[in-house]
């Protein structure tokens, strides 16, 4: 069974938001430009997409791998966007608010860069229900927990998904629309070994695992557990929110 792709939920969210050809769109926290590129295809040659990130190395990858004539990448802190930026029809962000210390202040600031009637749209992850269905796979559940514990230890809000509706109301976006979807993975096909490897240093820095944590042993135990019991489980809960500036 193929687990859901990285962009499946994002594409459904962008479709619900009804982004049109010719629109001017901002992608905040664009990183390597994956969402920026999806957006550039939706708005077409008559539209334009600005991708913003404060990490220059990721922007270099974006420029190499996800460029197009209608994309411009800007190196900036999302809290300090250049005032001269022309207003946007849509502002999009994927998995960015969950890492920001002042998510509400960020949204308030971004609203300034929207045209009247412009749309503010975010996709964020929430730890709620993570590992549900994997009761026969305690190591898998522990792996999910460690990932979220690391994000929380770094100051991320691991329950931001549930707060997006109120955040939008609090910044004066009326009638926000919220959708959520469980991302299902299985004992046979999941990203837990890969992601633990990617996050191992951060896990050690934040003492989520001990310094003597062995990735090799962890991987072997995970594979063994997956051979003993099969299960499909909730790996992540994706939340999408959008609403219009009045
Ligand atoms: C988890 S990544 C999400 C990447 C991308 N949106 C995606 O979904 O593929 C979060 C990104 O937000 C960026 N970021 C975090 N805080 C930021 C800030 N204050 N200003 C600009 N970018 C920021 C990070 O550099 C990182 O590239």
Protein model, in words:
The protein is about 35% helix and about 25% strand. The protein is α/β, with parallel strands linked by helices and about 250 residues long. It has a seven-stranded mixed beta sheet with strand order 3-2-1-4-5-7-6, with helices on both faces. The longest helix is centred in the middle third of the chain and has 16 residues, at about 140-155. The structure holds S-adenosylmethionine. S-adenosylmethionine binds near residues 54, 77, 78, 94 and 100. The site of S-adenosylmethionine has 17 residues, from helix 2.
Short description:
This protein is of the alpha/beta class. The protein has helices at residues 8-17, 34-43, 56-65, 103-111, 138-153, 164-170, 192-205, 215-228; strands spanning 24-28, 48-53, 71-75, 88-94, 114-126, 177-186, 232-244.
Write the layout of secondary structure elements.
Layout: H1 8-17, E1 24-28, H2 34-43, E2 48-53, H3 56-65, E3 71-75, E4 88-94, H4 103-111, E5 114-126, H5 138-153, H6 164-170, E6 177-186, H7 192-205, H8 215-228, E7 232-244
Parallel strand pairs: 1-2, 1-4, 2-3, 4-5
Antiparallel strand pairs: 5-7, 6-7
Residues 29-31, 34-35, 53-55, 58, 77-79, 94-96, 99-100 line the site of S-adenosylmethionine.
């Amino acid at each position: 069974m193929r687990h859901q792709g990285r962009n499946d939920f994002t594409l459904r969210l962008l479709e619900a938001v009804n982004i049109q050809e010719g629109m001017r769109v901002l992608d905040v926290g664009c990183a390597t430009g994956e969402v920026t590129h999806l957006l550039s295809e939706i708005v077409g040659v008559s539209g334009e997409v600005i991708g913003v990130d404060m990490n220059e190395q990721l922007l270099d990858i974006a420029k190499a791998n996800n460029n197009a004539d209608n994309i411009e990448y800007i190196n900036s802190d999302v809290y300090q966007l250049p005032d001269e930026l022309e207003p946007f029809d849509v502002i999009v962000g994927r998995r960015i608010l969950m890492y920001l210390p002042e998510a509400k202040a960020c949204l308030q600031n971004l609203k300034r860069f929207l045209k009247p009637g412009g749309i503010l749209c975010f996709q964020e992850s929430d730890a709620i229900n993570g590992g549900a269905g994997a009761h026969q796979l305690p190591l898998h559940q522990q792996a999910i927990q460690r990932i979220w514990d690391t994000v929380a230890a770094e100051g991320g809000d691991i329950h931001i998904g549930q707060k997006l509706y109120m955040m939008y109301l609090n910044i004066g976006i009326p009638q926000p629309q919220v959708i959520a979807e469980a991302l299902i993975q299985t004992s046979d096909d999941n990203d837990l070994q890969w992601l633990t490897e990617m996050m191992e240093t951060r896990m050690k820095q934040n003492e989520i695992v001990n310094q003597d944590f062995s990735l090799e042993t962890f991987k072997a135990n995970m594979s063994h557990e997956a051979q003993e019991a099969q299960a499909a489980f909730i790996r992540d809960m994706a939340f999408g929110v959008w609403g219009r500036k009045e």
